[in-house]
Amino acid sequence: MTIDGVDVGPAVFFRDATVRLGHRTIWSDVTLSVAAGEFVAVLGPNGVGKSTLVKAALGLVPLSSGTATVLGRAPGDAGHEIGYLPQRRSFDPGLRVRGIDVVRLGADGDRWGTPLPGAARFFGSRRREQARIAEVIELVGASDYARRPIGEVSGGEQQRLLIAQALVRHPQLLLLDEPLDSLDLPNQAAVAALVEEACRAEGVTVMIVAHDVNPILPYLDRVVYLGQGGAVSGPVARVITSETLTALYDTPIEVLHTSDGRLVVVGQPEAPAHHSDRHTGRPRQ
């Protein structure tokens, strides 16, 4: 990819990267490269470190060893050019904040809602900011309900508005941490198609953390599959195979292809119970 006319290489790049939290190694010797404009999934069982990989790209979790660059800079140095959607938030049904106001936080506030004085300068004017908010709301198909309280719309509709929030500042890179989690199958398919369509239209590189590859399978350029202690990346047909995953996990894994085109991974180990439970609200690693 290029910044100010200079080729800076991949959008996301890790080489021999290791993250340790406390006395535990989350993953080690991870090497991956995500080219500009690619749609890439980060896969693996719960607790293997998928969210940690995203946080490392954001500069929120430091590498213990190895190197990484994001948009040609050190992780954490390109924050305004990254759209980030953390693991699914639950909105109280009684919350009266409108969907359009949630989207606006992506333009004039950080993820905690604190106004940024320079936001108008980023867009050039308040009018351009408002136009951009309307543009991304239309892009994600949320115009019909964006002025309703966020607590009153469905889970799929909330997720569309949160994706609009992540897109509003024209990011070059979109990091989505399990955006399909807790959605029913029709909404998973709809949101996956929405992300692909919106990001192709805007020329945005996408890294999406997913537990199930099938809803996003038609849209992927490549995948990163994390295992206990390492990772393998490449095209779906090369990575999600019995041979590759068996070698990654050092245990027999079988990948089955169903008649409707879905992939089923049999024998994939789940991590020990050190990952947090989704019902507690604490983030997984």
Shape, principal axes of CA atoms: globular
CATH class membership: Alpha Beta
- Distinct helical segment count: 8
Q: What is the H level of CATH, i.e. the homologous superfamily?
A: P-loop containing nucleotide triphosphate hydrolases
- Quick check: average pLDDT? 85
Approximately what portion of the residues adopt beta-strand conformation? 15-25%
Overall number of structural domains: 1
In what order do the strands lie side by side in the largest sheet?
7-8-9-5-10-11
Briefly note the CATH topology name.
Rossmann fold
Cα-atom radius of gyration:
19 Å
Q: Which architecture would the CATH scheme give at its second level?
A: 3-Layer(aba) Sandwich
The helix-and-strand class reads alpha/beta
Low-confidence stretches: 110-118, 271-284
**Helical fraction:** 25-40%
Biggest sheet features: 6 strands, mixed
> Could you give the order of the helices and strands?
EEEEEHEEHHHHEHEEEHHEE
Question: Would you count the extended β strands for me?
Answer: 13
Q: For the record, give the distance between the C-alpha atoms at the N and C termini, rounded to a whole number.
A: 29 Å
